[in-house]
Amino acid sequence: GLSPALIRSDPVCVLVCLRVKGELSPCFRQRIKSMFYHAYNSYLDNAFPYDELRPLTCDGQDTWGSFSLTLIDALDTLMVLGNQTEFQRVASLLQDTVDFDIDVNASVFETNIRVVGGLLSAHLLAGRAGMELEPGWPCSGPLLRMAEDAARKLLPAFQTPTGMPYGTVNLLRGVSPTETPVTCTAGVGTFILEFATLSRLTGDAMFENVARRALRALWKTRSDIGLVGNHIDIVSKKWVAQDAGIGAGVDSYFEYLVKGAIMLQDEELLNMFLEYDRAIQNYTRFDDWYLWVQMHKGTVSMPVFQSLEAFWPGLQSLLGNLDGAVRTFQNYYSVWRQFGGLPEFYSIPQGYTVDKREGYPLRPELIESAMYLFRATGDHTYLQLGLDALESIEKIAKTPCGYASVKDLRDHQLDNRMESFFLAETVKYLYLLFDPTHFLHGGGTEGDGFWEAGGEGGQCVLGAGGFIFNTEAHPLDPAALYCCSRHAQDQQDLHDILLSLSQPVGKEDRQSESKETEGPPPGQSESIALKPGEKKTPPLLSCPVQPFTARFSILGQVFSDNT
């Protein structure tokens, strides 16, 4: 049942794998590991402590802030590949060497998704990696404190009249007085995963609050036909670039509405996305391609496909919209087969690359969608894409010092840069595509390390499935959020009870207490209607019978008391 292309690609690998294992995945996983370590070791040998490797000149450069970015971004990938020893070494190294108290201008967006997200993910994987854990983990720990420290450096950017953040912040001095107020849509709406995780783990609500305020402010700026543009003035709330689409500058905003809704069980975020999706399907979708249109009129402004849009089929699969996701993926895959990669811009009418946008910086988005769709359908077409990607990257981008971005897919010219997302995302999604029983997919059996205990007294079940990937492919465990937030709530309840018991009860209090404990008059049922001005207290997140902390988890799904 193997395709001829699959056999031709690596006949020795195929025969060995079939003879030894009866399946192909282990063989290809080993090739992907080799790809990772060639790039990773090249970075360590030639570029550390700089942010990124320059693979053509075998040296390094700082790009996003001067904090060994590739090492932070690659840390959880080490654990995904099963390398506990190196994970432990690098986690300790980062604690000793990385300092965020530096006079550097940093992208608020990139620092959040790569640094804060990478450190949070590594913190949540520390138990599985065999690191020594602090009492109460995952609600405390050195990597969590590093993530919190990095995120606090970003908070000055949110101090605006609208709550929408500036795009750049100086890590030492805050926002420059001359900083432009214009930022991209994704730069406003891509914080809820990391900031809500921080708030739920640490108990400091400020992070989640600023992320939600930014989301709600952005939501109010949509056009009359329900679309948002590409760049906005975060002070005046005026749209500067009015092209609406699902690609560069907008993409992860929509991604975080969906994933935030899943991770936080949040209907507000889901309803936001569903309303956007209706407008997107109505105005931008043509023959299962998604074009760019004018946000107020819906007229086509750019009939192009951007490589960053390739995340969309995977996102649609999370909502169960498989038919459209499969058709759109096939469109995108046809472009890959044409060039051996996805050019940054592809003209749909002309069927070719767009001038000065012919490059492929080893982006992960199509591989990411293949992973989700293979999980949803079991169709081996998506494994074929994974194999095509493995072959293309090895053949086109490999250098003696790592893997280089492709400057031009037409003639395979290379660029002297290896983005940190190659190790954080591209290799990780490729590996997970070929490992359907990986713990991040909820695989494994009891006694096989498929879940772990955490929280005070080990009362929480962690890592049992349902991981949410941030837009830099850093996995976050929803169970950890509920573990720590439930523990904080329990502590607060206990504090309130002890405080009330320590208060002397006066005559008026006793009378009031007596009235409260009296039942309704005979023949009259107790009213459940809210009194004027009274707010309904939402139920604590728990399973229907036992509290969540009593080791209840189904693929990360959390149920409310009234389910």
Automatic annotation (TrEMBL):
Keyword entries, A-Z? Calcium, Endoplasmic reticulum, Glycoprotein, Glycosidase, Hydrolase, Metal-binding, Unfolded protein response
Q: Which GO terms describe its biological process?
A: carbohydrate metabolic process; endoplasmic reticulum mannose trimming; positive regulation of retrograde protein transport, ER to cytosol; response to unfolded protein
Active site at E110, D251, E344, E365
Function summary? Involved in the endoplasmic reticulum-associated degradation (ERAD) pathway that targets misfolded glycoproteins for degradation in an N-glycan-dependent manner. May initiate ERAD by promoting the first mannose trimming step of ERAD substrates, from Man9GlcNAc2 to Man8GlcNAc2. Seems to recognize and bind to exposed hydrophobic regions in target proteins.
Q: Which cofactors are named for this entry?
A: Ca(2+)
Give the residues the record marks as binding Ca(2+): T471
Source organism of the structure: Echeneis naucrates (Live sharksucker)
Family assignment from sequence similarity: Belongs to the glycosyl hydrolase 47 family.
The EC number(s) given in the record are 3.2.1.-
Instruction: Report residue spans for region: Disordered.
Output: 503-542
GO CC, one annotated term: endoplasmic reticulum quality control compartment
Q: Which InterPro entries match?
A: 6hp_glycosidase-like_sf (IPR012341), EDEM1/2/3 (IPR044674), Glyco_hydro_47 (IPR001382), Seven-hairpin_glycosidases (IPR036026)
Write down the PANTHER family for this protein, in alphabetical order.
Answer: ER DEGRADATION-ENHANCING ALPHA-MANNOSIDASE-LIKE PROTEIN 2
Which molecular function GO terms apply here? Answer: calcium ion binding; mannosyl-oligosaccharide 1,2-alpha-mannosidase activity
Q: Which Gene3D superfamilies match?
A: 1.50.10.10
Q: Which stretches are tagged as biased composition: Basic and acidic residues?
A: 506-518
What is this protein called in UniProt? alpha-1,2-Mannosidase
Principal subcellular localisation of the protein: endoplasmic reticulum
Its domain of life reads: Eukaryota
Its localization reads:
Endoplasmic reticulum
